[in-house]
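Retro notes - structure team

What went well: the batch runner handled both jobs without manual restarts.
What didn't: labels got mixed up in the shared folder, which is why I'm recording both outputs here explicitly, each with its sequence directly above its tokens.

Job 1
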Amino acid sequence: MSSDNANLWMCLYFDKLPLEIFTRGETLSNHDPLKKSLPNKIKSRENRGPEHTGKSIVVLQKQRVFRLNQAALDIGIKPGNSMDTAYTLSDRVISFERNEDKEISTLAHLAQWAYQFTPNVSIKAPDSLLLDITGCLNLFKGLQPLILRVEQGLRQLGYQAVISTNRTPLAALLVARAHAPDGSINQIPVRYLQTDEKIITSLHQMGIHNVEDLLRLPESGLTRRFGVYFADYLQRLVGSKPDPQKLINPSVNFFHDITFLSDVSNLDSLTFPINRLLGELAEFLTSRQLQVNHFTWHLSHRNHNNKSFSIHLANPENNPRVFRTLTQLRLDQINDVKEIDNIALAVSQFFPAKAVNGSLFQGAGYQELALPSNTDKENQLLNMIHARLGPGYCFGLSQSNDHRPEKAWQTVSASTNDKKHPPTERDWLLKPDETPARPAFLLPTPKALNVADNIPCLAGKLELIKGPERIDYGWWDQPINKPLTRDYYIARQKDGSLYWIFQHIAMGQWYLHGIFS
């Protein structure tokens, strides 16, 4: 290894990625914590990943086997075989057409996942990631603990990678793709070099079969024979020339999916994949110190229309148990999905996580968050209403920027983040000199009142105890011949009831508009 000041790069080579984007759902089921509560007989059937279920799985490209699992290898299927050949060996072979777009998008998601280890992550399509780990080894207490951490994290996501390290990015990539056991590039065959096939053929004809033999040749001779680009590649490979990498930006976006090897017709069977995807979302949010108040599920099938539904929360949070409960509520309402072969979870809007205040003299378990507050209970209720009825049926009220009483209110989001609490009727009546009094109840349409001796009547004459308050507003959206000017009064009946009435100045007519509680 190089000196302490030298750069160190880690390569994650996903050689099984074309297969794993289809089979990771089977692998993930082995690690689902919900299975701890299942009977042993069910566990024995479920705890079998794609390598151990006996299912032969192949990925096709141009009608030929491109990738296959161990079960397919065991029955004699080989890369390059046609499906006719595969079916002669077994009639239970499960096949998928290669999806290169999904491979690239999955690699991009894995790059965002790797951002938790180092901010310097580069994508090498179609199957590799490069991580500059020079400055993070102390954080993870050395190279081996870091490698174990990466392996464990990938295993939980349902992926496997060949992991290698070297002092240059190209060398780390070469070691990983060649599966070099000692981590050195010297004995790697030249066929693994990222260069033109004609150059590889020429090197073989010259008797050069590994990188060590190649590097013994004079650089000037290599440049004359194979061109400046090949010489530049070798210089970056060995570190004699800088090799800056294009690093990813930490995009805040989440999209993970699970493909099923066989169609799912019973939505109750989605418990495990939903639990797994929500766990991945929780890990993503925790690593980035984020929360969400909205996420969307997509249920799809190759022969049917896709089905999507969203979960809206009263407040942003990161609690997979809450996410799971609300998802199940919405899932119970779905009865128009016949079968699915893929489930996906998507989130596009995020909020910074709020810090939890604890006590300096108490343990970590003694936190303010330990006991649910009134706000937490309110949020739980709103979440349940959102999930059962949808966001359009749950809202709050707020003041609107309009002096006309019938237009002075507006609906707002039920989220406690967005709620604006208007002054209560009690506040107005206790401070009559500071704020105009408003009743809690307004009639949908003002009711015309009778008049006796120029005094408005409602089951008897009303006593005007406060007013007038003139409201002359909104002339721009009213007919010119119908002026809006009103004089409002608080009136009292003989039994003590309080009413909000007004006189329409242009018409001289009295109306009842509101009732005080």
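Job 2
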Amino acid sequence: MLALVAPLTMMVCAPSAMAGRLLESGHDIDLHCGQQNAECHFVQVAVNYVRNGSPHPNLPVLVFDRGPSPQDVPAAINRAFGVGQVPMTVVDPQTITATFPVIDTNHWSAIFVASDTNCSGCDLNLAPTGSPPAAQTPDSTAIASRTKDISNFFNAGGGILVGAGAIDSGGFGNITFNATNVPYYSFVATSGAGEVTGPFQRTAIGVKLGLTDADLNIASCGTGCTHNSFGFPPAGSRLVPVENDGPTGRFITLIEDTDAPTASFTSVPPATTTATSASFGFKSSEENSTFQCRLDAGAFSACGSPFAVAGLGEGRHEVDVRAVDLVGNVQATPTAFAWRVCLDRDHDGFTSCSTPPDCNDNTAKVHPGAKEVPGNRVDENCDGFSAPFQAVNGSIDFIFAAFKSFTTVNALTLSKVTRRAQVTVSCKGKGCPFKSKRVKLKRKTRLAALFARHHAKSHLGVGVRLRIAVNKKGLISKVFNFKIRAGKLPTLTNLCQIPGRRRLRTSCPVFTT
């Protein structure tokens, strides 16, 4: 899948979780910019492209270059970006050893290999000599000796920029190459295809990359510029052309980028909102990306930032965005944002998005910590209780006699009871004289004797539950709950019950109109 290969054997390196970017150009952009002040924008585009895919894009560039001063690559970088703006270290390829220089992404953002001498003025290798001509490739042979390290650097995310010189794989006639005489581009998976003459044309990807016609067709030489071309990339390669020569369609500049970009949101709606429309801003981790969006698991379609959606219904919604880089790599897992639209269906100024939610507008879950607001008729904590409610009145007086195995009721009287309230007495357990009965209240005093005289001496066994409930429709009920104990007076628990609810509570908020 990657373009870097071992010398001569052409064994493609295995792809990694993160791979770098490669740009191969048949233009001698280092010579043209460094010595002629042409194609400097091409140098900017190329250097930025390969560095920006690196895990450390601000690290220096490792330059393989030699030759008469000024050397083409450092001169071109300084002229394209400004002196000192791009840090670099220049290494003469003929000083390369098995351990020098160190080649890894902890030291360099990218490697820039200078153009070959066959461009008539470029720096690397020597012109062929003899008849038939014999290749002289000391620089490319030295670079090829570190192909494994260069490949590992690329697979770790490092950028590779290689200048013109592909013609050395066969452009000098019947030249024999071997391990000590290696063609210039042997460390990439493309081969030279010969010289071509302009005008040169950008592909759609070349346009997106940022190259211009002026970058490709140098005004000083018109359509007569001769540059190198490449053979078709091998099967499985991710190389794509950004420039060709038009008439023959030969590839002049190619790039490779195997990593998919990642989209991230720059603006989103609130997590909960009453708005039925929303707008999203986003960006990509890679320049020149396009985007695809979808709403609520629909189909992806092309979109731009900002992305707007409208006509949303109440409930949860999700927008997914994925980025597509300029060579077509698609983000595998979309970037998602979910939010909720809530409506004020009862027009009380509160919605299911309110804090706490209005349960009259949706089926929100209980929020036990929420505080009820008197008089607004909103169930803030979603427990089925909304203001206003009043509680029934009622006071209880009692006298019990406790024995080891039973308890008797000597007096049990209810007074100060709310008018028209109903009183029910229930008894459950051993010794109960009845299960449940309704007790009539005296009209004037609203007072009742809860145990009839003939039940007063009943022996209520240990564990008996005696309950007195005072109820009136629309009011909070009051419940007195006695539990008989052995040799001790019964325990009394005061409980209440909210209208329309079955659960008894130890406390019920009381509101008045």
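One thing worth noting from job 2: The first helix runs from residue 29 to 36.
We'll revisit the folder naming next retro.
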